[in-house]
Amino acid sequence: MKGLRGIISIIICLVGSIGSQCIYAAETKEAPYTRTGSPVGCEIDEQDPGVSKISKTFAVNASDKVILDNQYGTLNVRTWNKNEVRLDVIVYGSPELDARRLSEFVTVNAIKNEGVVILDTKLSGSKRLNGKKIRVEFMVYMPETNNLKLLHQYGNVSIGDFTGSVVAGVQYGNFSAGDLKNSNNDLSISYGSTTIKSINKAKISQEYGNGLTIGSVGTLSLNSSYAAVKINTILEKANISLEYGAGLVIGAVGQLTLDAAYANVRIGTIKNYAKISHQYSDLNIGVANGVNLNAQYSNVKLGRLNGDAKLSIQYNSLNIDDVSVDCQSLIVDCAYVKTNIKFNSNYNGSLDASTSNSSLNYGAGISVRVEGDKQNKRYKGKIGVGGNAKVNLVSSYGSAVVN
């Protein structure tokens, strides 16, 4: 990033039927830019004696779509009640630079034709003028309900609460948003952090950077690699693919499909049902109301099991602290695993366990009949007084304790 490479493009396309009339928007340059006031969300550096601002404003209707494509600098998108979109390009210099020269450093050409508005912003030279460093900020004001698509590189992006859909591609910068209310959001962030207060429905890709943080989300499709992910609440369902990075933390989720490798996973509550594939790290679930788990080389810990479960685990360990009476079917197949399962004191059901080159120890509340030889054994009996609930356990080349 030694230079701007000459061009920063900002394209705003308004999709709608406005005829074939071609309009060239007027360009407004202000130099110097006095500090009697500044746009909302735009910080003015009081140490800079000269600041240049160029603005473009044009009308939009409810069906119009706004597309931004730019590089270098901070992009802030703010909403207002006007049926207009306004772009402010603000150029900051250093004390040695004259503000009028800063205004000549930036050229913005705007064309509106058949529902398309193009704003082409060019910066002459690099991020330095006469050897002095230049800083650029982009401010966009638009109605909250219009759909937005943006591509941004080498700078941070900030969006407030938004009703229209948001499609964003951000590289080498952070992305932050308030409440994204639309059901069609698509975000791709790499080499930067993502922070979202809440989002209705979204497809998100997060790679590298400082990770992804979401307060609440309705429905989520997430692909993450080499990044930490923290989500407080998933209200409905999520499909998550995760590898490497600092891990995944979910407070509560309705329905979950998860494929994770080389990343620790911690989930507070699975309210409905989860299908999980997990490899080479730790998996910790507080409460699960139903789970289908396939794990390899994982240390699996489940606090409370309130529903049916099918667990297939190879290598490392499995610990279940409390199998409640709401679990009517528990199927466990372990190989090279240290297994420890505790049943609630009120639990009643049947037990059918098989071991191969493995040991099985059981508590006083479990009564079984043992068949087989030293290498292979079969245990059939009941937990508590017996009942309709069924527990099937297979342990090979490991150890198992049930009580």
TrEMBL record:
This is Adhesin domain-containing protein.
